[in-house]
Design goal:
Layout: H1 5-15, H2 21-27, H3 32-41, H4 46-55
Helix pairs in contact: 2-3
Length: 74
């Protein structure tokens, strides 16, 4: 599955009760405009993704997946 970060966050927002982008922005300490700009550019830092995860009462996990086996490298 090749989903970019923006699409993934949107899917998670829906699963978390249709949380709006504005609500997510508020919970992460950003303005809705700033969050919208990040969505448009698809430019999220890891520290921002951690805040997004916290806002969704979730844990952020990042993995490198071997293309051949489909398994995490570590």
């Amino acid at each position: 599955m090749h989903t970019d970060v923006r699409e993934y966050i949107n899917l998670c927002r829906v699963k978390k009760g249709n949380m709006t982008e504005a609500e997510l922005a508020r919970r992460t300490g950003q303005t809705p405009q700033n969050m919208n700009n990040k969505y448009k550019r698809n430019t999220f830092k890891i520290s921002e993704l951690q805040k997004v995860a916290e806002a969704m009462d979730a844990e952020l996990k990042i993995s490198f997946i071997d293309k051949e086996s489909g398994e995490p490298i570590i």
